[in-house]
Amino acid sequence: MSCIELIGLKKLYKDGTSAVDNFNLRIEDGELVVLVGPSGCGKSTVLRLIAGLEDLTDGDIRVNGRSIKAMDPKDREMAMVFQNYALYPHLTVEGNLAFPLQLKKMDPKRIKDRIGQVLDVLGLKEICHRKPRDLSGGQQQRVSVGRALSRKPAAFLLDEPLSNLDAILRAKMRVELAKLKQASGATMVYVTHDQIEAMTLADKLLVMNEGKIQQIGSPREIYSNPSNRFVAEFIGLPQINCLTCPIKQGRVDILGKSYQLTGMVMNGLDQVIIGIRPDQLLLKDGDHWQVQLIENYGDHQVVFLEDSSGQAVRVQVEAGQIVKMKQVFDLGIRDLRSVLLFDAQNEERLAGQLREV
Ligand SMILES: Nc1ncnc2c1ncn2[C@@H]1O[C@H](COP(=O)(O)OP(=O)(O)OP(=O)(O)O)[C@@H](O)[C@H]1O
Ligand SMILES: [Mg+2]
Fold this sequence. Notes:
four-stranded antiparallel beta sheet, 24% helix
């Protein structure tokens, strides 16, 4: 397998759109790197650059130390699953899986064995004689994944490979992909905007926005130690609460209490953004926050509240706690160490903490 280095990647499309800029990433041999970010942030472009389907505007791509920049896509040995399937319409499911192997002149008996396993894992056996037009979107997507899996490429490039599956099949395929990755030691770059996929599959998670890398780290690091407000808001469900507070003499008033800011350089800061995850907030007796909406997830609830100034927060509460619409509460913070602080101007993470006074 392969170690892939992306060095200073830049992609400007002909119409002037800057899709990827100053993109640096090292993907170790056997590592599964997940790229996440909002629609249009450049995820597919990064994959297409690695596969050779787009030309680089600047930068270099190395596989095991060798530049592949000038190589044809077919010589790069990357198995890509496209966001829009890209199946061969005139071939059956089986034919679609076999075609790349036939091109490589693999022995027909070996092709049959290998495809048999893949059809089994992906639950495609019953429909293996159908053509793509006679398949549902989810089935086409599984064929597309299967075609990549039946090869033994230098790396897998997967662009939202599960986006058209229903929730149950998605969860099942996620587990299958994780198993497959463990068993094969394959190097994979995986694009998704599904947070659960990103968190559960990634060895290394990369959050991007507007063509630029926001943070690279393990899912745990990114969740508990986001480097800016964008990352904190993008990763974590329900979404983190970000409250902007004025700083007065090194203190902030938040949720009806005054706290000292510690462990940080004030540097003339007069405002700070305070980030509190919904599971770190607590409903208490009081009348400052009114319930506007309750989402019931079965195993927990998310309660949306507003204060008289229209400021809104989300609080995660246990399934059994009785909360009613329009009910009023005060809010408390469970563990002050979990509170994240961001610069109100540039939204970068600040090192400090809140302390009770
Ligand atoms: N061929 C093209 N010409 C011009 N602009 C393009 C082209 N392809 C993509 N773009 C633009 O480049 C940016 C990045 O697109 P890309 O497809 O990489 O996003 P993405 O992160 O994969 O989004 P999504 O999650 O919606 O698939 C977008 O602004 C898109 O409109
Ligand atoms: Mg895309």
